[in-house]
């Protein structure tokens, strides 16, 4: 399923990117995310797309970015915009990072494109990749299940664990919940998690 999603984003990269540049509902969550990250800190963006608007927000505030995306067109856009940072065309399910390499990790509108069991595995790896005191920001569905969205009129897969299941994965991964909001009305109805490495 993620391979098909990458193909969808590849084919609709420029339209998706244009829409993202016009909308930034997650800004307040990003402001909260960076509160404990030192200036110049290392941030990993899993499913970075073309880097707009999230990575521009972070680059403008002095952070060093590594972005991962499976769609070549998306990575190309990010490289063109932010050539001093690191952009890798890769599958986040297979990406290998050094232990305790990052001050912050974002998986905004990306983690929930994975099947539930793969989300569990990736969250456990996020716990390994974060430095102690580091933070991770991602979104999910409001409860366990699968939903089908759309991009340019084509079906787009989403999956979610239940809040209790996410919390159990955090506990196994050395992560602690900092903030959680179900269908946040100030963030376009997104369900958001902010967690920290303990």
Keywords:
33% helix; seven-stranded mixed beta sheet; 198 residues; alpha/beta; Rossmann fold
Could you characterize what this model shows?
One of its GO terms (biological process) is methylation. Pfam families: Methyltransf_25. Keywords: Methyltransferase, Transferase. It is a single chain. The chain is globular. The protein has helices at residues 2-11, 13-21, 27-33, 54-59, 72-81, 116-129, 163-172, and strands spanning 42-46, 64-69, 86-89, 102-107, 130-140, 145-151, 154-160, 175-184, 190-197. The strands form two sheets. Strands 3-2-1-4-5-9-8 form a seven-stranded mixed beta sheet, sandwiched between helices. A two-stranded antiparallel ribbon has the order 6-7. With 198 residues, it is α/β, with parallel strands linked by helices. It has one domain (2-197): Vaccinia Virus protein VP39 (Rossmann fold, 3-Layer(aba) Sandwich). It is built from seven helices and nine strands; from the N terminus they run αααβαβαββαβββαββ. 33% of the residues lie in helices and 32% in strands.
Question: Quick one: CATH superfamily?
Answer: Vaccinia Virus protein VP39
Count the E strands. Answer: 9
In order across it, which strands form the biggest sheet? 3-2-1-4-5-9-8
The CATH class is identified as Alpha Beta
Any guess at the CATH architecture?
A: 3-Layer(aba) Sandwich
State the share of residues found in helices, binned by percent.
25-40%
- Report the span from N to C terminus: 33 Å
Q: Which value, in Å, is the CA radius of gyration?
A: 15 Å
> What is the strand content?
25-35%
Organism: Sphingomonas tagetis
GO molecular function: methyltransferase activity
Domain Methyltransferase: 43-134
Protein name: Class I SAM-dependent methyltransferase
């Amino acid at each position: 399923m993620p391979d098909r999603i990458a193909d969808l984003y590849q084919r609709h990269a420029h339209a998706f990117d244009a829409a993202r540049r016009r909308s930034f509902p997650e800004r307040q969550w990003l402001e909260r995310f960076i509160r404990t990250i030192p200036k110049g800190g290392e941030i990993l963006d899993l499913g970075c797309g073309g880097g707009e608007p999230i990575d521009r927000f972070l680059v403008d505030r002095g952070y060093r970015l590594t972005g991962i995306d499976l769609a070549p067109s998306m990575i190309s856009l990010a490289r063109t915009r932010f050539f001093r940072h690191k952009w890798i065309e890769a599958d986040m399910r297979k990406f290998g990072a050094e232990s305790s390499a990052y001050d912050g990790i974002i998986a905004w509108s990306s983690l929930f494109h994975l099947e539930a069991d793969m989300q569990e595995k990736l969250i456990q790896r996020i716990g390994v990749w974060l430095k102690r005191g580091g933070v991770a920001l991602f979104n999910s569905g409001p409860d366990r299940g699968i939903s089908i969205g759309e991009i340019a009129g084509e079906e787009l897969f989403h999956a979610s664990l239940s809040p209790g299941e996410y919390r159990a994965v955090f506990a196994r991964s050395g992560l602690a919940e900092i903030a959680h909001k179900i269908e946040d009305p100030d963030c376009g109805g997104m369900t958001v998690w902010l967690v920290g490495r303990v």
